[in-house]
Specification:
Layout (H helix, E strand, L loop, with lengths): L5 E2 L5 H5 L9 H8 L2 E6 L4 E3 L7 E7 L2 E7 L2 E8 L3 E3 L1 H6 L6 E4 L3 E7 H10 L1 H28 L2 H16 L4 E3 L4 H8 L3 H13 L3 E4 L2 E4 L2 H10 L1
Antiparallel strand pairs: 1-2, 2-9, 3-8, 4-7, 4-9, 5-6, 5-8, 10-12, 11-12
Helix pairs in contact: 4-5, 6-9, 7-8
Amino acid sequence: MNLQLRALGMKCTDLFYSTDLAGILNQEEKELLSTNSTMITYSKGDCLVKKGEFVTDAIYICSGFIKVHLDFERKNMILSVSGNKKFLLLGTMIFKDIQPFNLTAIEETIVCLTDIKIIREIVLKNPKLSGYILKNLNESMLYYVHHNLVSLTQNNIHGRLAHVILYLAEEVFQSNSFDILLSRKELSELCNISRENVIKVLYEFDRDGIIQLQGKNIYINSLDSLRKIANHG
């Protein structure tokens, strides 16, 4: 972790008492996790974790957004974007000792870091927590199969970008109007198409009235049109 990052000097009590975990953990577990957690603020562009580092903490995103990415054959590939009020790759971090991906903040982001050893100990005793983690792992796997193995291998450039816009709207920002936060280059790394083609297709979607572009803001005029392109592009 970057030692220059500013710790907030507070515990992640709300995470264990007012989220989905409140009904999963008992009082003793909540207190144990709270005393082994801390909140940290990362600036845009800060790297939380690098591939190959030891897993030391579970990461809960309190606010902000983080991209999951890796280098592949000298190219950077963005695999997903995770938003606030979510654990980041919790299933992976429970079962792996080495980080498989790079994690980077794409805007100012506040995270709760919890000692992974403590969570692993509780998982062995608490079947509800085990089920919660497996559910998260399953959802991540389903997205990976659909996005990386289906969309990026079967769709043309219009289908790939339509799929990514839908993903950002429905899974990440949960709104039909959002600031992308990603540069055009980063969008190309998420779609696995060239930056030039990202710009070209965004212009075409805007021209055809499917979306409305205002700088980094996207407003989706027609979800049905995007879905048709994503499914058949």
